[in-house]
Amino acid sequence: MAHKGSSINKTRGVLYQLARFLGDFSAVSSGSPAKIARRVGRRAVGRAVGRGMRKLFR
User: Fold this and answer.
1) Nearby residues of 23 by Cβ (< 8 Å), 6 or more positions away
2) Burial class of residue 3 in the structure, from the number of CB atoms within 10 Å of its CB (0-12 exposed, 13-18 middle, 19+ buried)
3) CB within 8 A of 27, min separation 6: which ones?
4) How do residues 6-56 score in pLDDT, each as one tens digit?
5) Which of 21, 29, 37, 39 is the most buried (most CB within 10 A)?
6) How far apart are CA 40 and CA 23, in angstroms?
7) CA separation (Å) from 37 to 3, 7, 13, 46?
């Protein structure tokens, strides 16, 4: 039973990675430097917050 859940989690992870990639692609393909900068900034902030939360809840 746990194996099936693992498969679902892997699929979910792949879908989230695909969504992130498509968001990046969309920002770059728009050609707008403002959209690209906003995307890069938000991803950087998200990573920093994620690291902080990881340290907080260890």
Assistant:
1) 39
2) exposed
3) 35, 36, 38, 39
4) 889 999 999 999 999 999 999 999 999 999 999 999 999 999 999 999 999
5) 39
6) 11
7) 40, 35, 25, 14
